[in-house]
User: Fold these one by one.
Assistant:
Number 1:
Amino acid sequence: MEPRARAGKNVGKMNFSHNELAQLLYAHGDVKVPLPETIRVLDEILTDFMQSTAFEATRAAQYAGRQKIKYEDFEFAFRKNPSYLGKVHEVFEKQKEIKKAREILRDGEDEIIKDAAEEEKRRDKAQEKVAVATPVVTIPSATSASSIATASAVPKTEMARREEELGEADDDVDDDFDALGKR
């Protein structure tokens, strides 16, 4: 079936959404809520334009001996209208720029992740070396036997790391008791 013969299928049907066309009209200076007839006419115009462009591109592809349409076929279809051709070139150039930017970002992200993993491994090795070389700290002022055993088995760097993990969160309980005057 010839592509032009399919054009009768879309008569009376909306091919684009009402919101898309209303936004397009508003972007080009129409009122915020356009008339339904305006939307219908714009839908028919856009549908006809897209069908005729696709028909011309299909014709160029068939002439070249292909069944699938390529970018060059659309370039050939727009060859008589330089403004359309320029827009098509612009869209594809932007698409290439976006693709390159994503690749750069992805490559940079991969490098950052690898560097962070290597840095973490180096830190872990350094902590292990320090933990082996550091003597074990005992806390004589602990009240229970279990806390003495726990404290004596933990190296000094490990205690510092635990303290660092908690940050100031462990100090809040003491501050609350001081503020309430219970100590």
Note: The mean pLDDT is 78.
Number 2:
Amino acid sequence: MDLDLWISKVKEGNHLSEDELQLLCEYVKEILIEESNVQPVNSPVTVCGDIHGQFHDLMKLFQTGGHGDFVDRGYNSLEVFTILLLLKARYPANITLLRGNHESRQLTQVYGFYDECQRKYGNANAWRYCTDVFDYLTLSAIIDGTIFFYLRISGALCPWWSSPDIRTVDQFNHINNLDLVCRAHQLVQEGLKYMFQDKGLVTVWSAPNYCYRCGNVASILSFNENMEREVKFFTETEENNQMRGPRTGVPYFL
């Protein structure tokens, strides 16, 4: 595998061949199987929220300083997931991919990723290769033992995944000796939002003008070696601003 060549190829807007994508997915699975469900990460680090298939905005995110749900809703879920897999393969110790609720076989058949793979490859093989990788993605990360970041936790296990409650968050942080919980999943128009006055829970959203129509800004949250925080905001790219078309008419933000 020539990872640098493949990275350049995808950044230029081209797809890997079906065989190349299969090889990449198998390679990354071997890396991911060694990681924990709660993956330890050392600062400095940049936290990114949902991307949702907005490839050009992901490229701008990298330029801004930087990853959330990777697929569905945007027009370029395949390119987004492919470039993230390539970067994970090329720099395995420097990028941590967390599984979001859209990284599932069921939701990708509803929200567009399955159809996108069919359209771009002419069959469902690419979708199968990618969704097999979903099973290996880590569920959360803990930064320097004090910051917990997650994208997707079952509501049965975590009652504040979709509806955070200050008492539950305070208890969780106290029991686990945490300073902050970072989450994604929920669109916030301002890109980043501390959910309570004590700032024990923050939502990070990294898909600007979500679904090409919501008008929101996006953000990334960086921690330096001293765990000092810096928020960087960014807006959509011109390429994404020009993308308009029929969207899947599902009103609920899964």
Note: Strands lie at 38-41, 45-48, 140-143, 147-150, 180-183, 192-194, 201-204, 218-223, 229-234.
